[in-house]
Amino acid sequence: MPLLDAVGRYSVRQVEYLGALAIQLWRCLRFTVRAHAFGRRRLRWKRVVMQMAEIGVHSLPVLCLVSGATGLIMALQGGAELRKFGAMDAVINLVGTSMTRELGPLIAAIVVIGRSGSAMSAEVATMAVTEELDALRAMALDPVDFVLVPKYLAMLVMLPCLTVMAVFSGILAGGVFTYYSLDLTLIQYFLRTGDILLMRDIISGLVKAGIFATVIVHVSCLEGFLVRGGPVSVGRATTNAVVKSIFLVVLADLICTAFFYFYWR
Amino acid sequence: MAAKFSARQLLNRHGREPIIEVSGLKACYGERVVLDGVNLNIRRGETMVILGGSGSGKSTLLRHIEGLERPSGGSVRICGIDLAKATDQQLSALRRMMGVSFQSAAMFNSMTVGENVALPLLEHTDLAEPTIELMTKMKLQQVGLSGVEDLYPMQLSGGMRKRASLARALAMDPEILLFDEPSAGLDPVIAAGLDELILDLKGTFRITIIVVTHALSSAFRIADRMCMLYEGKMLAVGTVDEIRNHPHPRIHQFVNRIPSQPEPSSHRYITGF
Questions:
Q1: Cβ–Cβ gap B95/A138 under 8 Å
Q2: pTM: predicted TM-score of the whole model, two decimal places
Q3: Domain boundary assignment for chain A
Protein backbone atom coordinates (compact mmCIF):
# COMPACT_ATOMS: atom_id res chain seq x y z
CA MET A 1 0.00 0.00 0.00
CA PRO A 2 2.65 2.54 -0.92
CA LEU A 3 0.05 4.99 -2.26
CA LEU A 4 -2.03 4.94 0.91
CA ASP A 5 1.16 5.24 2.88
CA ALA A 6 2.24 8.32 0.96
CA VAL A 7 -1.18 9.95 1.23
CA GLY A 8 -1.28 9.29 4.95
CA ARG A 9 2.20 10.65 5.50
CA TYR A 10 1.41 13.74 3.45
CA SER A 11 -1.82 14.42 5.35
CA VAL A 12 -0.10 14.05 8.70
CA ARG A 13 2.57 16.53 7.62
CA GLN A 14 -0.05 19.07 6.51
CA VAL A 15 -1.98 18.71 9.76
CA GLU A 16 1.28 19.13 11.68
CA TYR A 17 2.01 22.27 9.71
CA LEU A 18 -1.40 23.75 10.46
CA GLY A 19 -0.91 22.86 14.11
CA ALA A 20 2.44 24.63 14.17
CA LEU A 21 0.82 27.68 12.59
CA ALA A 22 -1.94 27.66 15.19
CA ILE A 23 0.49 27.37 18.10
CA GLN A 24 2.62 30.16 16.68
CA LEU A 25 -0.42 32.39 16.24
CA TRP A 26 -1.57 31.74 19.80
CA ARG A 27 1.86 32.50 21.28
CA CYS A 28 2.17 35.59 19.13
CA LEU A 29 -1.17 36.95 20.30
CA ARG A 30 -0.28 36.28 23.93
CA PHE A 31 3.04 38.06 23.64
CA THR A 32 1.46 40.95 21.75
CA VAL A 33 -1.04 41.60 24.49
CA ARG A 34 1.49 41.14 27.26
CA ALA A 35 4.37 43.23 25.96
CA HIS A 36 2.90 45.93 23.79
CA ALA A 37 -0.24 46.73 25.69
CA PHE A 38 1.81 48.29 28.46
CA GLY A 39 4.21 50.15 26.17
CA ARG A 40 7.24 49.56 28.36
CA ARG A 41 9.69 48.57 25.69
CA ARG A 42 10.69 51.42 23.49
CA LEU A 43 13.05 49.35 21.40
CA ARG A 44 10.17 47.14 20.31
CA TRP A 45 8.16 50.09 19.09
CA LYS A 46 11.14 51.25 17.08
CA ARG A 47 11.23 47.86 15.41
CA VAL A 48 7.51 47.99 14.68
CA VAL A 49 7.82 51.40 13.05
CA MET A 50 10.80 50.27 10.97
CA GLN A 51 8.84 47.26 9.79
CA MET A 52 5.89 49.49 8.96
CA ALA A 53 8.03 51.66 6.73
CA GLU A 54 9.46 48.58 5.06
CA ILE A 55 6.13 46.84 4.49
CA GLY A 56 3.92 49.81 3.85
CA VAL A 57 5.62 52.92 2.59
CA HIS A 58 8.16 51.26 0.37
CA SER A 59 5.68 49.03 -1.43
CA LEU A 60 3.20 51.80 -2.13
CA PRO A 61 4.42 52.82 -5.63
CA VAL A 62 4.47 49.34 -7.10
CA LEU A 63 1.15 48.50 -5.45
CA CYS A 64 -0.56 51.57 -6.91
CA LEU A 65 0.78 50.75 -10.37
CA VAL A 66 -0.36 47.14 -10.25
CA SER A 67 -3.74 47.97 -8.79
CA GLY A 68 -4.30 50.88 -11.19
CA ALA A 69 -3.45 48.70 -14.16
CA THR A 70 -5.84 46.02 -12.93
CA GLY A 71 -8.62 48.57 -12.51
CA LEU A 72 -8.06 49.84 -16.02
CA ILE A 73 -7.94 46.35 -17.49
CA MET A 74 -11.17 45.48 -15.80
CA ALA A 75 -12.85 48.64 -17.08
CA LEU A 76 -11.64 47.92 -20.63
CA GLN A 77 -12.66 44.26 -20.60
CA GLY A 78 -15.97 44.98 -18.94
CA GLY A 79 -16.62 47.94 -21.21
CA ALA A 80 -16.04 45.85 -24.32
CA GLU A 81 -18.76 43.42 -23.28
CA LEU A 82 -21.18 45.84 -21.67
CA ARG A 83 -21.11 48.11 -24.73
CA LYS A 84 -22.96 45.40 -26.66
CA PHE A 85 -25.90 45.77 -24.27
CA GLY A 86 -25.67 49.53 -24.10
CA ALA A 87 -24.92 49.31 -20.40
CA MET A 88 -21.62 51.13 -20.25
CA ASP A 89 -22.74 52.67 -16.95
CA ALA A 90 -22.38 49.30 -15.33
CA VAL A 91 -18.60 49.62 -15.68
CA ILE A 92 -18.73 51.85 -12.62
CA ASN A 93 -20.48 49.15 -10.62
CA LEU A 94 -18.11 46.52 -11.92
CA VAL A 95 -14.91 48.36 -11.05
CA GLY A 96 -16.15 49.81 -7.78
CA THR A 97 -17.54 46.68 -6.18
CA SER A 98 -14.99 44.16 -7.39
CA MET A 99 -12.10 46.40 -6.41
CA THR A 100 -13.42 47.06 -2.92
CA ARG A 101 -14.61 43.59 -2.10
CA GLU A 102 -12.14 41.41 -3.86
CA LEU A 103 -9.30 42.68 -5.96
CA GLY A 104 -7.99 45.46 -3.73
CA PRO A 105 -7.26 43.19 -0.76
CA LEU A 106 -6.00 40.41 -2.99
CA ILE A 107 -3.63 42.56 -5.04
CA ALA A 108 -2.29 44.24 -1.92
CA ALA A 109 -1.72 40.84 -0.34
CA ILE A 110 0.08 39.45 -3.36
CA VAL A 111 2.33 42.47 -3.77
CA VAL A 112 3.16 42.33 -0.06
CA ILE A 113 3.88 38.59 -0.24
CA GLY A 114 6.29 39.22 -3.08
CA ARG A 115 7.99 42.14 -1.41
CA SER A 116 7.78 41.59 2.33
CA GLY A 117 6.74 37.97 2.87
CA SER A 118 9.76 36.69 1.00
CA ALA A 119 12.06 39.16 2.75
CA MET A 120 10.66 38.14 6.15
CA SER A 121 11.16 34.44 5.63
CA ALA A 122 14.67 35.02 4.26
CA GLU A 123 15.51 37.18 7.28
CA VAL A 124 14.19 34.69 9.82
CA ALA A 125 15.76 31.74 7.99
CA THR A 126 19.12 33.50 7.95
CA MET A 127 18.79 34.14 11.66
CA ALA A 128 18.12 30.43 12.16
CA VAL A 129 21.15 29.44 10.10
CA THR A 130 23.55 31.86 11.79
CA GLU A 131 22.47 30.77 15.30
CA GLU A 132 20.91 34.18 15.97
CA LEU A 133 17.62 32.57 17.02
CA ASP A 134 19.51 30.33 19.42
CA ALA A 135 21.30 33.37 20.77
CA LEU A 136 17.93 34.99 21.44
CA ARG A 137 16.68 31.90 23.26
CA ALA A 138 19.88 31.72 25.27
CA MET A 139 19.26 35.32 26.36
CA ALA A 140 15.81 34.33 27.60
CA LEU A 141 14.17 36.19 24.72
CA ASP A 142 11.54 34.31 22.79
CA PRO A 143 12.06 34.53 19.00
CA VAL A 144 8.30 34.68 18.50
CA ASP A 145 8.11 37.60 20.89
CA PHE A 146 11.15 39.40 19.58
CA VAL A 147 11.11 38.71 15.84
CA LEU A 148 7.54 37.86 14.91
CA VAL A 149 5.43 40.19 17.04
CA PRO A 150 6.84 43.46 15.62
CA LYS A 151 6.38 42.17 12.08
CA TYR A 152 2.85 41.05 12.84
CA LEU A 153 1.84 44.35 14.39
CA ALA A 154 3.34 46.26 11.48
CA MET A 155 1.61 44.06 8.93
CA LEU A 156 -1.70 44.20 10.75
CA VAL A 157 -1.68 47.99 10.50
CA MET A 158 -0.12 48.36 7.07
CA LEU A 159 -1.94 45.78 4.95
CA PRO A 160 -5.39 47.35 5.50
CA CYS A 161 -3.84 50.74 4.72
CA LEU A 162 -2.28 49.37 1.57
CA THR A 163 -5.61 47.80 0.67
CA VAL A 164 -7.30 51.18 0.91
CA MET A 165 -4.66 52.62 -1.40
CA ALA A 166 -5.02 49.71 -3.82
CA VAL A 167 -8.80 50.12 -3.93
CA PHE A 168 -8.47 53.84 -4.45
CA SER A 169 -5.97 53.59 -7.28
CA GLY A 170 -7.96 50.82 -8.96
CA ILE A 171 -11.14 52.89 -8.86
CA LEU A 172 -9.24 55.97 -10.01
CA ALA A 173 -8.01 54.04 -13.05
CA GLY A 174 -11.59 53.06 -13.79
CA GLY A 175 -12.43 56.74 -13.59
CA VAL A 176 -9.87 57.52 -16.27
CA PHE A 177 -11.64 55.05 -18.53
CA THR A 178 -15.12 56.50 -17.91
CA TYR A 179 -13.77 60.03 -18.40
CA TYR A 180 -12.95 59.20 -22.00
CA SER A 181 -15.71 56.73 -22.84
CA LEU A 182 -18.69 58.04 -20.88
CA ASP A 183 -17.73 61.73 -20.63
CA LEU A 184 -18.10 61.63 -16.86
CA THR A 185 -15.93 63.96 -14.82
CA LEU A 186 -13.91 62.33 -12.08
CA ILE A 187 -16.07 63.96 -9.43
CA GLN A 188 -19.24 62.60 -10.97
CA TYR A 189 -17.60 59.21 -11.26
CA PHE A 190 -16.59 59.13 -7.62
CA LEU A 191 -20.03 60.27 -6.50
CA ARG A 192 -21.63 57.47 -8.53
CA THR A 193 -19.17 54.97 -7.06
CA GLY A 194 -20.00 56.23 -3.59
CA ASP A 195 -23.69 55.61 -4.27
CA ILE A 196 -23.02 52.08 -5.38
CA LEU A 197 -20.70 50.99 -2.61
CA LEU A 198 -22.20 49.72 0.59
CA MET A 199 -20.59 49.77 4.00
CA ARG A 200 -20.66 45.98 3.78
CA ASP A 201 -18.31 46.01 0.78
CA ILE A 202 -15.77 48.22 2.47
CA ILE A 203 -15.82 46.35 5.77
CA SER A 204 -15.55 42.95 4.11
CA GLY A 205 -12.52 44.19 2.14
CA LEU A 206 -10.80 45.42 5.28
CA VAL A 207 -11.61 42.27 7.25
CA LYS A 208 -10.04 40.28 4.45
CA ALA A 209 -6.95 42.46 4.59
CA GLY A 210 -6.58 41.74 8.30
CA ILE A 211 -6.90 38.01 7.75
CA PHE A 212 -4.43 38.09 4.86
CA ALA A 213 -1.95 40.00 7.02
CA THR A 214 -2.15 37.24 9.63
CA VAL A 215 -1.67 34.51 7.04
CA ILE A 216 1.27 36.22 5.32
CA VAL A 217 3.29 37.02 8.44
CA HIS A 218 2.74 33.70 10.15
CA VAL A 219 3.38 31.53 7.12
CA SER A 220 6.50 33.48 6.13
CA CYS A 221 8.00 33.48 9.61
CA LEU A 222 7.13 29.85 10.31
CA GLU A 223 8.97 28.81 7.15
CA GLY A 224 11.97 30.72 8.49
CA PHE A 225 11.73 29.26 11.99
CA LEU A 226 11.56 25.72 10.64
CA VAL A 227 14.82 26.02 8.72
CA ARG A 228 17.56 23.57 9.63
CA GLY A 229 20.93 23.36 7.99
CA GLY A 230 22.95 25.59 5.73
CA PRO A 231 22.40 28.59 3.48
CA VAL A 232 20.75 26.48 0.76
CA SER A 233 17.72 26.05 2.99
CA VAL A 234 17.25 29.83 3.20
CA GLY A 235 16.36 29.92 -0.49
CA ARG A 236 14.05 26.97 -0.12
CA ALA A 237 12.32 28.56 2.85
CA THR A 238 11.73 31.75 0.87
CA THR A 239 10.23 29.86 -2.06
CA ASN A 240 8.03 27.83 0.26
CA ALA A 241 6.90 30.93 2.10
CA VAL A 242 5.80 32.68 -1.09
CA VAL A 243 4.06 29.65 -2.58
CA LYS A 244 2.29 28.70 0.63
CA SER A 245 1.30 32.29 1.42
CA ILE A 246 -0.25 32.81 -2.01
CA PHE A 247 -2.12 29.54 -1.79
CA LEU A 248 -3.37 30.14 1.75
CA VAL A 249 -4.31 33.76 1.02
CA VAL A 250 -6.44 32.69 -1.95
CA LEU A 251 -7.97 29.92 0.15
CA ALA A 252 -8.74 32.36 2.97
CA ASP A 253 -10.21 34.73 0.40
CA LEU A 254 -12.52 32.00 -0.88
CA ILE A 255 -13.65 31.13 2.63
CA CYS A 256 -14.28 34.78 3.52
CA THR A 257 -16.15 35.46 0.31
CA ALA A 258 -18.32 32.40 0.81
CA PHE A 259 -18.97 33.45 4.39
CA PHE A 260 -20.02 36.97 3.38
CA TYR A 261 -22.11 35.57 0.53
CA PHE A 262 -24.13 33.28 2.76
CA TYR A 263 -24.27 35.09 6.09
CA TRP A 264 -24.18 38.79 5.33
CA ARG A 265 -26.34 40.00 2.47
CA MET B 1 11.82 41.70 38.87
CA ALA B 2 10.47 38.65 40.65
CA ALA B 3 12.17 36.31 38.25
CA LYS B 4 15.55 37.92 38.85
CA PHE B 5 15.27 37.45 42.60
CA SER B 6 14.35 33.86 42.18
CA ALA B 7 17.53 33.22 40.19
CA ARG B 8 19.65 34.50 43.10
CA GLN B 9 17.58 32.51 45.54
CA LEU B 10 18.13 29.42 43.48
CA LEU B 11 21.86 29.99 43.62
CA ASN B 12 21.98 30.62 47.34
CA ARG B 13 19.80 27.70 48.21
CA HIS B 14 22.06 25.66 46.06
CA GLY B 15 25.40 26.68 47.54
CA ARG B 16 27.50 23.55 47.84
CA GLU B 17 26.25 21.09 45.28
CA PRO B 18 27.36 21.10 41.65
CA ILE B 19 25.83 24.03 39.80
CA ILE B 20 25.41 21.92 36.65
CA GLU B 21 24.67 18.21 36.71
CA VAL B 22 24.49 16.28 33.48
CA SER B 23 23.43 12.70 34.06
CA GLY B 24 23.00 9.94 31.54
CA LEU B 25 22.43 12.48 28.80
CA LYS B 26 21.48 10.97 25.47
CA ALA B 27 20.99 12.94 22.28
CA CYS B 28 19.94 11.70 18.87
CA TYR B 29 19.51 13.50 15.56
CA GLY B 30 17.16 11.12 13.79
CA GLU B 31 18.86 7.73 13.81
CA ARG B 32 22.29 9.11 14.65
CA VAL B 33 23.28 9.00 18.31
CA VAL B 34 25.35 12.09 19.10
CA LEU B 35 25.62 11.81 22.88
CA ASP B 36 25.38 8.48 24.65
CA GLY B 37 25.05 8.44 28.41
CA VAL B 38 27.14 11.50 29.24
CA ASN B 39 27.70 12.28 32.93
CA LEU B 40 29.31 15.52 34.06
CA ASN B 41 29.18 17.58 37.23
CA ILE B 42 30.41 21.14 37.24
CA ARG B 43 31.01 22.91 40.53
CA ARG B 44 30.30 26.51 41.18
CA GLY B 45 33.18 28.83 40.31
CA GLU B 46 35.30 26.35 38.40
CA THR B 47 36.42 26.48 34.80
CA MET B 48 35.58 23.29 32.96
CA VAL B 49 37.02 22.67 29.53
CA ILE B 50 35.25 20.15 27.33
CA LEU B 51 37.74 18.63 24.91
CA GLY B 52 36.97 16.53 21.90
CA GLY B 53 37.66 16.13 18.23
CA SER B 54 35.38 17.36 15.48
CA GLY B 55 32.03 15.60 15.60
CA SER B 56 32.56 14.25 19.10
CA GLY B 57 29.35 15.89 20.29
CA LYS B 58 30.85 18.65 22.40
CA SER B 59 28.83 21.47 20.84
CA THR B 60 25.70 19.34 21.23
CA LEU B 61 26.49 18.90 24.91
CA LEU B 62 26.80 22.66 25.25
CA ARG B 63 23.47 23.19 23.49
CA HIS B 64 21.85 20.85 25.99
CA ILE B 65 23.34 22.75 28.90
CA GLU B 66 21.95 25.94 27.37
CA GLY B 67 18.56 24.24 27.21
CA LEU B 68 18.31 24.72 23.45
CA GLU B 69 17.73 21.02 22.79
CA ARG B 70 15.51 18.45 24.46
CA PRO B 71 17.42 15.39 25.64
CA SER B 72 16.37 12.03 24.19
CA GLY B 73 17.29 10.51 27.53
CA GLY B 74 18.86 11.48 30.85
CA SER B 75 18.75 14.99 32.23
CA VAL B 76 20.54 18.31 32.57
CA ARG B 77 20.04 20.04 35.91
CA ILE B 78 21.16 23.56 36.63
CA CYS B 79 20.90 24.68 40.25
CA GLY B 80 18.91 21.52 40.81
CA ILE B 81 16.31 22.31 38.18
CA ASP B 82 15.77 19.82 35.38
CA LEU B 83 15.80 21.90 32.19
CA ALA B 84 13.40 19.56 30.39
CA LYS B 85 10.82 19.91 33.18
CA ALA B 86 11.38 23.55 34.08
CA THR B 87 8.54 26.03 33.78
CA ASP B 88 8.93 28.96 31.40
CA GLN B 89 9.70 31.27 34.29
CA GLN B 90 12.35 29.00 35.78
CA LEU B 91 13.95 28.54 32.39
CA SER B 92 13.94 32.27 31.79
CA ALA B 93 15.46 32.91 35.23
CA LEU B 94 18.19 30.34 34.60
CA ARG B 95 18.98 31.74 31.18
CA ARG B 96 19.31 35.23 32.58
CA MET B 97 22.16 34.04 34.75
CA MET B 98 23.89 32.31 31.87
CA GLY B 99 25.94 34.08 29.25
CA VAL B 100 26.53 32.28 25.98
CA SER B 101 29.10 33.01 23.33
CA PHE B 102 28.39 31.01 20.20
CA GLN B 103 30.89 29.46 17.85
CA SER B 104 29.75 31.66 14.98
CA ALA B 105 29.45 34.67 17.35
CA ALA B 106 25.72 34.89 16.39
CA MET B 107 25.62 38.67 16.59
CA PHE B 108 22.32 40.16 15.42
CA ASN B 109 23.23 41.52 12.03
CA SER B 110 20.36 43.97 11.88
CA MET B 111 21.61 45.83 14.95
CA THR B 112 24.79 47.71 15.73
CA VAL B 113 27.38 46.18 18.03
CA GLY B 114 26.32 48.53 20.80
CA GLU B 115 22.66 47.58 20.43
CA ASN B 116 23.66 43.92 20.45
CA VAL B 117 25.43 44.26 23.78
CA ALA B 118 22.71 46.47 25.23
CA LEU B 119 19.88 44.17 24.18
CA PRO B 120 19.76 41.89 27.25
CA LEU B 121 19.98 44.92 29.52
CA LEU B 122 17.19 46.72 27.68
CA GLU B 123 14.97 43.67 27.71
CA HIS B 124 15.56 42.30 31.18
CA THR B 125 16.32 45.27 33.40
CA ASP B 126 14.67 48.57 34.26
CA LEU B 127 17.92 50.52 34.00
CA ALA B 128 17.80 53.99 32.50
CA GLU B 129 19.18 54.41 29.02
CA PRO B 130 22.33 56.39 29.96
CA THR B 131 23.25 53.67 32.45
CA ILE B 132 22.81 51.00 29.82
CA GLU B 133 24.91 52.99 27.39
CA LEU B 134 27.68 53.27 29.97
CA MET B 135 27.55 49.57 30.79
CA THR B 136 27.68 48.69 27.12
CA LYS B 137 30.82 50.78 26.73
CA MET B 138 32.38 49.13 29.77
CA LYS B 139 31.63 45.61 28.61
CA LEU B 140 33.10 46.34 25.20
CA GLN B 141 36.16 47.88 26.80
CA GLN B 142 36.54 44.80 28.95
CA VAL B 143 36.96 42.65 25.85
CA GLY B 144 39.28 45.17 24.24
CA LEU B 145 36.82 46.74 21.84
CA SER B 146 36.34 50.47 22.20
CA GLY B 147 34.64 52.78 19.77
CA VAL B 148 32.89 50.10 17.73
CA GLU B 149 29.43 50.67 19.27
CA ASP B 150 28.00 52.18 16.11
CA LEU B 151 29.44 49.68 13.66
CA TYR B 152 27.44 46.73 12.39
CA PRO B 153 28.69 43.21 13.14
CA MET B 154 29.42 42.63 9.46
CA GLN B 155 31.89 45.52 9.53
CA LEU B 156 34.00 43.79 12.18
CA SER B 157 36.65 41.13 11.66
CA GLY B 158 35.96 37.59 12.83
CA GLY B 159 38.01 38.01 15.99
CA MET B 160 36.35 41.28 16.89
CA ARG B 161 32.91 39.75 16.34
CA LYS B 162 33.82 36.94 18.67
CA ARG B 163 34.95 39.34 21.35
CA ALA B 164 31.84 41.44 20.86
CA SER B 165 29.71 38.35 21.37
CA LEU B 166 31.62 37.72 24.58
CA ALA B 167 30.80 41.26 25.67
CA ARG B 168 27.14 40.54 24.97
CA ALA B 169 27.36 37.31 26.98
CA LEU B 170 28.86 39.26 29.88
CA ALA B 171 26.33 42.07 29.73
CA MET B 172 24.06 40.64 32.41
CA ASP B 173 26.98 39.71 34.72
CA PRO B 174 26.26 36.00 34.36
CA GLU B 175 26.92 33.33 36.98
CA ILE B 176 27.66 30.79 34.28
CA LEU B 177 29.54 31.58 31.10
CA LEU B 178 29.38 29.14 28.21
CA PHE B 179 31.92 29.50 25.49
CA ASP B 180 31.84 27.52 22.26
CA GLU B 181 35.23 27.36 20.51
CA PRO B 182 36.65 30.68 21.66
CA SER B 183 39.75 30.46 19.52
CA ALA B 184 38.39 28.88 16.33
CA GLY B 185 39.43 31.00 13.38
CA LEU B 186 41.40 33.51 15.42
CA ASP B 187 45.08 34.30 15.11
CA PRO B 188 47.28 33.08 18.00
CA VAL B 189 47.76 36.53 19.51
CA ILE B 190 44.05 37.28 19.74
CA ALA B 191 43.36 33.73 20.95
CA ALA B 192 45.91 34.22 23.73
CA GLY B 193 44.23 37.51 24.56
CA LEU B 194 40.91 35.72 24.93
CA ASP B 195 42.54 33.20 27.28
CA GLU B 196 43.81 36.06 29.42
CA LEU B 197 40.35 37.55 29.43
CA ILE B 198 38.82 34.27 30.63
CA LEU B 199 41.45 33.96 33.37
CA ASP B 200 40.71 37.52 34.33
CA LEU B 201 36.96 36.88 34.63
CA LYS B 202 37.66 33.78 36.63
CA GLY B 203 39.89 35.68 39.03
CA THR B 204 37.67 38.70 39.57
CA PHE B 205 34.12 37.42 39.46
CA ARG B 206 34.37 33.77 40.44
CA ILE B 207 31.95 32.80 37.70
CA THR B 208 31.52 29.27 36.47
CA ILE B 209 33.00 28.97 33.01
CA ILE B 210 32.46 26.17 30.54
CA VAL B 211 34.63 26.21 27.46
CA VAL B 212 34.30 23.86 24.52
CA THR B 213 37.45 23.66 22.50
CA HIS B 214 39.97 21.54 20.69
CA ALA B 215 42.77 24.08 21.09
CA LEU B 216 45.02 22.28 23.56
CA SER B 217 47.35 25.05 24.63
CA SER B 218 44.54 27.35 25.63
CA ALA B 219 42.65 24.49 27.25
CA PHE B 220 45.55 23.62 29.53
CA ARG B 221 46.03 27.26 30.38
CA ILE B 222 42.52 28.17 31.48
CA ALA B 223 41.09 24.90 32.84
CA ASP B 224 40.55 23.90 36.47
CA ARG B 225 39.19 20.59 35.33
CA MET B 226 38.74 19.07 31.92
CA CYS B 227 36.73 16.33 30.34
CA MET B 228 37.08 14.56 27.05
CA LEU B 229 34.30 13.47 24.73
CA TYR B 230 34.88 10.85 22.08
CA GLU B 231 32.14 9.66 19.73
CA GLY B 232 29.42 10.83 22.09
CA LYS B 233 30.84 9.18 25.18
CA MET B 234 32.56 10.84 28.11
CA LEU B 235 35.99 9.22 28.29
CA ALA B 236 37.37 10.99 31.33
CA VAL B 237 36.83 13.87 33.71
CA GLY B 238 39.70 15.15 35.79
CA THR B 239 42.19 17.84 36.62
CA VAL B 240 44.55 19.17 33.98
CA ASP B 241 47.35 16.84 35.06
CA GLU B 242 45.11 13.82 35.24
CA ILE B 243 43.98 14.38 31.68
CA ARG B 244 47.48 15.15 30.46
CA ASN B 245 48.75 11.83 31.82
CA HIS B 246 45.64 9.76 31.21
CA PRO B 247 46.38 6.20 30.05
CA HIS B 248 43.37 5.91 27.71
CA PRO B 249 44.81 5.61 24.19
CA ARG B 250 42.37 8.11 22.61
CA ILE B 251 43.09 10.75 25.24
CA HIS B 252 46.80 10.10 25.02
CA GLN B 253 46.59 10.49 21.26
CA PHE B 254 44.53 13.70 21.49
CA VAL B 255 46.60 15.36 24.17
CA ASN B 256 49.90 14.53 22.50
CA ARG B 257 48.62 15.34 19.01
CA ILE B 258 49.52 11.99 17.50
CA PRO B 259 47.97 11.49 14.07
CA SER B 260 45.87 8.39 13.47
CA GLN B 261 47.89 5.57 11.90
CA PRO B 262 47.03 5.20 8.24
CA GLU B 263 45.19 1.96 7.48
CA PRO B 264 47.52 -0.74 6.13
CA SER B 265 45.32 -1.26 3.08
CA SER B 266 45.35 2.36 2.05
CA HIS B 267 49.11 2.39 2.50
CA ARG B 268 49.41 -0.46 0.07
CA TYR B 269 47.16 1.34 -2.36
CA ILE B 270 49.48 4.30 -2.55
CA THR B 271 52.79 2.42 -2.91
CA GLY B 272 51.81 -1.01 -4.06
CA PHE B 273 51.59 -1.31 -7.87
A1: yes
A2: 0.84
A3: 41-263
